[in-house]
Design goal:
By secondary structure, the protein is mainly α. It contains 15 helices and no strands.
């Protein structure tokens, strides 16, 4: 194994995957916003009211709606990267500095997160929206609050995933620190099994979509799957023996299924428990091939603007959903700009511009502080 003490941990292509994941969510949220006001896109429907989808429209609708799967991609990346960094730290120093881990995560997540909580009252007043539950977000239990109320509260509707990440951070360094490496895989698989059984239990008990979708136990499995990939890479156990044609076939099947059905619908206990593992498995195979396989279908040798967008993907995810209501209430409706191209251009353009400004002028200052608490180098 290479010298871990001097290794700078940076998987460049993860930035591209981060942006793709963020973009999937941005488009899905923006699409929901448009449909809520004006129905489906005209070219997708057979009627002037934009209510009845064509066959093509139905496939496109399902593809866009499945963009929420981008959150699963984020979880997969997070589980992989956090676990790998902790394994390197443990190998290098013989221990995990849990205090420094929490400080690093705090500097990465909290500044933008709490900035948006701080400005939320002004946005709520400006748009005349109902007052959300601030405590649920300040103390990172938004997912449980939404799960119980069944209400996606603006502007914090998408904060549930950050809360689940924070719950992950609370336990994962202790697992890596105190479980012998030879037993870690068993722990990771146990987390996956517990998560699957939790979804089964919630669905069987008739708890409904929100419990199955939002409960922390229901969502920890994808983080653990990412951790398995990290463990295998750390131990040089990753093998890429799937022929290229077989991979192409797998990806084609994935695209067909992805466009045909929702990955997060729980019509039966079986589907609630197991359906998403097909999607996650294919994405995990694609991610690890993209990162490490010399025979990957797509090879990116040089950094490009997409890498930069991946670096600011946290901001893209956080700002985009908040901007939807602002764009509709303050631009589209007042100026009679009811045009889907204008709407999406404004949402994507403003999201990227604001995320760049936020990253360069605000978040970067905290990321500089974060590096002071690194045990192993993770500079980009």
């Amino acid at each position: 194994m290479e010298n871990l003490q001097t290794k700078n941990i940076y998987f460049a292509n993860l930035d591209m995957l981060r942006f793709i994941a963020a973009f999937m969510v941005v488009i899905a949220h923006a699409y929901d916003g448009w449909c809520g006001w004006w129905g489906y896109f005209g070219f997708m429907t057979v009627d002037s009211d934009h209510k009845t989808l064509t066959t093509f429209g139905n496939y496109l609708h399902q593809t866009i709606k499945n963009g929420g799967f981008g959150v699963e991609v984020f979880f997969l990346i997070s589980g992989f990267l956090i676990t790998y960094i902790l394994l390197v730290e443990k190998e290098t120093t013989g221990r995990i500095d849990i205090k420094k881990f929490f400080i690093r995560r705090g500097f990465r997540i909290w500044p933008l997160y709490f900035l948006l909580i701080a400005v939320a009252p002004f946005i709520i007043e400006w748009l005349q929206k109902p007052t959300p539950n601030y405590m649920a977000n300040i103390f990172f239990y938004n997912n449980f609050h939404t799960m119980v109320t069944g209400n996606w509260e603006y502007p914090f509707a998408h904060f549930w995933s950050i809360c689940i990440e924070e719950h992950f951070y609370l336990v994962w360094p202790f697992i890596i620190a105190f479980v012998p490496n030879k037993h870690l895989l068993n722990v990771f698989w146990s987390v996956i099994i517990i998560s699957a059984l939790s979804r089964y239990g919630f669905n069987a008990a008739g708890k409904g979509f929100y419990y199955t979708y939002l409960h922390t136990l229901s969502r920890m499995d994808v983080l653990a799957i990412g951790a398995i990939g990290a463990y295998m890479h750390f131990n040089n156990a990753l093998k890429f023996s799937i022929p290229k044609l077989a991979r192409i076939g797998l990806y084609i099947v994935f695209i067909i299924i992805y466009a045909d059905s929702a990955y997060n619908m729980y019509e039966s206990n079986f589907l609630a428990t197991l359906r998403k593992y097909f999607y996650v498995a294919v994405i995990a195979i694609g991610m690890l091939n993209f990162l490490f396989n010399p025979d990957a279908l797509i090879k990116i040798k040089n950094k490009n603007f997409i890498h930069y967008l991946g670096k600011i993907s946290y901001g893209i995810y956080m700002y985009s959903n908040i901007l939807i209501a602002i764009i509709i209430d303050k631009i589209i409706i007042p100026y009679n700009l009811v045009n889907m191209y204008i709407y999406f251009l404004l949402n994507i353009g403003l999201t990227i511009i604001i995320s760049i400004i936020s990253y360069e002028l605000f978040e970067k200052q905290f990321l500089k502080l974060k590096t002071r608490f690194e045990v192993v180098k993770t500079n980009r």
